[in-house]
Amino acid sequence: AIFKAGAHVQERRDRRGLNPRPLRVGIIGYPNVGKSALINKILGRRRAKTANMPGVTRSLHWIRVRTDESKTSLAKEFELLDSPGIIPAKMVDQSDALLLAACNCIGEAAYDNQAVAAYLCEWLKAIHLMKKEGSTCPEWRNKCKERYAFDPMKKSEETGDYLTGEDMLFLVADNTCRGDPEDASRKILQDFRAGRMGPISLQLAPESEKDNGQLAVNFGEVFERKQRTQERALERQQEQKQRALQAVETAKERGLELPPIVEAGVIEKEDDVGKGMFEGW
Fold first, then answer.
1. Where are the alpha helices (DSSP H) in the chain?
2. Which of 126, 169, 193, 196 is deepest in the core (most CB within 10 A)?
3. How far apart are CA 274 and CA 261, in angstroms?
């Protein structure tokens, strides 16, 4: 695939009367995403230094890859550039920075473990509230119950609110780390990075062109207040429907004659209420 993609380079050199030379391929990306590991995989042996932490590769390093055909032509060789991780200078969004820290793409000295762990929990809770957990974090809730002994989506009995990210952090501390929030934050981040919380995607696939590459994850007090209002409205609607069904059953038991539209249970708009009661008068 590399030779096919770079064939035009050798053709241009040949037209200019230049000797063929190995193709050069740069591998760039965020810190600690597996650039050096990919090079080792291509080579089939360990040439690039790797570790499960950002900042291991500190300088540019060209690594030549030879094939069986490279003995007769340099055009059958290529060089891979192992480079340090790059974070775009225009990344000013604090949310993106915290998520990168959660993914271990930023050195530990640059962030606070407790803040990152709490934000990660808050982010995953928001995905659940958006009903998108099936495609992004299907096992997170159950894994929290198994490993941390609490349900992250359970509402407080006193306030009726969901747990915040900080609430979850301190629950992990109390249940598994003898009350130490720093140990709890490291435990949460290590479990997330090691895949112990199941498959997790922190980004949501876009649903339209207006989503700018990814679906926005909404959370915070305003979003949760709106979510609670919708849930209460749905509960009231279900309660009213249940009461109406009970009233119909009670009326039938007492032998009362109901309008046909009520017996059928088809009331699509408010104007239909009472319809048929006085028909024929």
1. 2-5, 7-15, 35-43, 94-102, 113-129, 133-136, 140-148, 165-176, 181-193, 221-253, 260-264
2. 169
3. 9
Please, what is the angle between helix 113-129 and helix 94-102, to 10°?
Answer: 100
pTM for this model (two decimals): 0.62
Gap between the Cα atoms of 135 and 127, Å rounded:
10
Instruction: Write the pLDDT tens digit of every residue in 199-243.
Output: 999 988 888 888 777 888 876 665 556 556 666 777 778 887 888
Run of H or E residues at 78 = strand 78-82
Query: What distance in Å separates the CA atoms of residue 278 and residue 281, rounded to the nearest whole number?
Result: 6
How crowded is residue 45: how many other Cβ atoms within 10 Å of its Cβ?
7
Q: Report the C-alpha gap between 34 and 39 in whole angstroms.
A: 9
Question: What are the residues facing 80 on neighbouring strands?
Answer: 25, 63
| Between residues 207 and 272, the one the model is more confident about | 207
Do residues 74 and 21 touch, judged by C-beta distance below 8 A? yes
